[in-house]
Structures are given as structure tokens and as C-alpha cells.
Amino acid sequence: MIDDARGRVLVAGGGIAGLAAARALHRRGVPVLALERRTAPEDGGLAINLPGNAVQALGQLGLGDALERVGSPVRRREYRTHRGQLLFAVDEAAFWGEAACPRCLRRSDLQRLLGQDLPPEAIRRGGTIRAVRATASGVSVDLGEGGVEQGGLLVGADGVHSTVRRSMFGEQATRAAVLGQASWRFMAPNPGIDAWTLWAGAGGLFLLIPVDTDAVYGWVSISRTGAGERDLAKVRRVFAPFPRLVQDTLDRVLVHPDAIHHSPLEEVRIARWTQGRVLLAGDAAHATAPVWAQGAALALEDALVLADLLGREADWNTVGLAYEARRRPRVAHVQAMTDRLSRTAALPDWARNRLLPVIGPRSYRAAYAPLREPVSVWERTGDGRGASVQGA
Ligand SMILES: Cc1cc2nc3c(=O)[nH]c(=O)nc-3n(C[C@H](O)[C@H](O)[C@H](O)COP(=O)(O)OP(=O)(O)OC[C@H]3O[C@@H](n4cnc5c(N)ncnc54)[C@H](O)[C@@H]3O)c2cc1C
Fold first, then answer.
1. Same domain, 255 and 273
2. Same domain, 49 and 145
């Protein structure tokens, strides 16, 4: 590939998708420049849960060993009622296999891993992309006072409110759908749990995932709250019937309201991710409610597929269509599974508690079994049929 600006890939954003794209491209020998508006990562000290396909993708990015030194494996998943009764459990280590066992780690650790070994010239921080323009030889991005950068292709990995998406597809396409729930994320001292544990009850979900023996990552979501409600303390009554452990954790968290992150659940579902030499990746293309925790996984997989195509194809004009063809089926699968479980979560308590012991394990398998095939294999079949899973 030629080594002037026409042979260089620009990446908008240095989050999970942007860093993964920069890393994957660099490993394929494709010159890359990621442009990130923030001068330092902002993750609020939070953690992230990585299902097995994210762990596999990190392995393909050369980070398998490094990953084992951060966070904790998530070996078991438990779904409980709001009174603590176990509805069903999943042996995640057995399902994914030891090598791809899900993992919960701090977001800062994930960002650090993705950025390690990247040459300094591959990422520029403190530059906000304001506009995108197609040029005769590729793409030009306007960074305001930061000047202009040229590339042969632009990957818009600038998140759910993507400027690149707005520039290419207009205002309409950028309107993310906000699901009808308020949600918050936080870190808390580990109250003694060693499994991914969800308590589901009338109007609320409460999830804790161990990050290590000292800390848990928590996610709370409320379905019956006034529009615009942002204050977790005010909706605490929803959790009054939940087990003591949940309430004690909430009490500890509410002592530090600044460490509670209001996290609107927004989705992006658009008909096209590519236009000419501009491609969208990660949340910019397909932000999805975190029902199956697939945000990071899909972003990492996008990066692997993009780097594969850009490293191999001489003609970058055709890469966009090939990228969509390879990624659409897997993303559509995750979106369909997300909608399906969201509908179950919205059922009245009595119905959900009767149904989940039966359909819960099946839903888990239906959602994750096709994703167990590493991304390159899966896309050879293209429709998920190749993802028949031993032991599922
Ligand atoms: C409540 C909640 C819980 C979640 N839990 C999980 C989970 O457990 N596991 C999981 O895998 N996923 C989870 N997700 C989803 C996950 O966080 C996202 O899918 C993932 O962070 C997407 O990464 P990204 O790089 O595409 O976008 P982002 O992380 O949003 O990164 C975009 C980057 O682009 C930069 N940027 C934006 N605009 C510009 C611009 N104009 N110029 C330059 N830079 C710009 C931003 O500063 C940012 O760094 C969760 C999401 C929510 C809301």
C-alpha cells in the first residue's frame, strides 16, 4: 500500500472501537491515525463485562496473555428473582471454554491494553473532528483549529452520537433511540459475590459482576420511573423488596453520588454503515442496549474485519460493501436477541419468574452459541448456520 495520505486510514475516536481499529490496522501494516477529542480516556473508573467472543477477539488482537493479568474471569451467571430465589444459572466457563472464558475488567485496563504497542504517531489526542469531506483520493477531516487531516479512508468510531455518521447520513440517522428505561453504572466494594448475578423484580433490574475480590461492577435499570428521572436515590424505593445484599450495596453506593453514572440506553439501527470511503464501526454503527454485553465485542470484531479487508484489498472503494456484508449478519443476530430478552424482562414478575427457568438457558444459548465461532470463521458462513455449537 502506498505510504502517503492516500494509503493511510483515519479513525475518528479513540474509544474501544477506535483503538481496536488502530491496533488491528497497525498489526496488518496499514498506516493509521486515530483522532480522539479527549486528551485522556474518561471512563469514570468503571468496569466492563466481556463475553467470550470479546475475549476471543482480544486474543486475535494479540492480547490474550495480557488480558489474563487484568480483572477476573466470570465463570458463572445467576438470574434471581427480586427476593433472591435462583431462577437459573449458567456455567459460562464450560459454555465458552477456558480459553474464551468471559472476563470483567476495568475499562481503563481494556483501553490500556488496546493502546499498548501502538506507535505514538498512530493516535492524536485532543483533536475533535468537526466535519468530513470526500476528496478525489479519499477523505479529509476538519479538526477546527487542529487543522485538516487527509486519508485514503475514514473509520467513524466516534460513538453513539457520531459526528462522522451525521456528516455522512444527515441528522435523521443520528437520532439514537432511547429505550424506555433509566439506567446507572457504578463500582462498589464486593459484598461477597463470586458470580455475575442479576436480580429482576417489579420495575427494576440490579446486576453485580465481580471485578476482583475487592470490587464489583454494578448496573441498575429502572423501568417504571418518571420521564427524565436521573436520580438513583429517588427511585431507590423500587429496590426496597430486594435482598439485603442489594440494599446494602445501594446504601454504600449512594454515599458517593458522584461515582454513580447515569447511563441512558441508546441504540443506533441504521440501514447503511458505509458511504464511499467512510465506514462506521462500533457504537457509531450499531450501539445496542447492553442486554447481552455485546458493545465491546462487536466493536473489536468490526476492527478485525476492517483490518483484514484493508490489509488485503488493493481497491479501498469496494471495502465498505464487503465490510457490511461480513458484519451485518452477526450484528443483526445480536440486535434480534437483544429485543427478544428485553421483551421478557418487561413481563410482569409472575410471568417472568415462571418463564425464565425454562426459556432463560435457551435464550442464553440462542444468543451466544452463534457468537462462539471466532469472527473470521463465522463470516465464512455469513448467516450463523455455520455456528453449530458442540455442547450447546
Ligand atoms: C449502561 C451500559 C452498560 C454497558 N455495559 C457493557 C458491557 O458490560 N460490555 C460491553 O461490551 N459493552 C457494554 N456497553 C456498551 C459499550 O460501552 C460500548 O458499546 C462501547 O464502549 C463502544 O465503544 P466505541 O468505541 O464504539 O464508542 P465510545 O466508547 O463512545 O468511544 C467513542 C470515542 O470517540 C470520541 N469522539 C466522539 N466524537 C468525536 C469527534 N467528533 N472527534 C474525535 N473523537 C470523538 C469519544 O471521545 C470517545 O472516546 C454498555 C453500555 C451502556 C450504556
1. no
2. yes
Quote the pLDDT of residue 228.
56
Q: The pTM is what?
A: 0.93
Question: How remote is the CA of residue 161 from the centroid of ligand 1, in Å?
Answer: 10
Query: What is the whole-number distance in angstroms between the Cα of residue 15 and the centre of ligand 1?
Result: 6
Task: Return the C-alpha cell found at 306.
Answer: 476492517
Residue nearest to atom 37 of ligand 1 (CA): 158
Which of 242, 262, 282 is the last residue in one of the domains?
Answer: 262
The stretch 7-27 carries a mean pLDDT of: 97
Residue 119: CATH number of its domain: 3.50.50.60
- Tally the domains of the chain: 2
Same domain, 240 and 361: no
Q: Cell digits for 278?
A: 467512510
Pairing assessment for the beta strands 9-12 and 32-36 based on DSSP bridges: parallel
Q: Considering only CA atoms, which of 195, 183, 271, 189 is closest in space to residue 230? A: 183
Chain CA centroid to CA 65, Å: 21
Tell me the mean pLDDT in the region 144-156: 94
Measure 159 CA to ligand 1 centroid, in angstroms.
5
Contact 37, 129 (CB under 8 A): yes
| Ligand 1 mutation pick, 11, 48, 110, 112, max ligand atoms within 8 A of CB | 48
Q: Do 162 and 231 belong together in one domain?
A: no
CB 72 within 8 A of CB 210: yes
Range of the domain at 364: 5-177+266-381
Q: What is the CATH number of the domain that holds 201?
A: 3.30.9.30
Structural domain ending residue among the three candidates 207, 238, 262: 262
What separation in Å is there between the alpha carbon of 61 and the centre of ligand 1?
19
Residues lining ligand 1, judged by CB closer than 6 Å? 12-18, 35-38, 48-49, 128-129, 157-159, 163, 183, 185, 219, 263, 265, 282-284, 290, 293, 295-297, 299
For residue 100 the three cell numbers come to 474464551
Interstrand relation of 148-151 and 138-142 (parallel, antiparallel or unpaired): antiparallel
**Residue 329: its pLDDT value, please?**
95
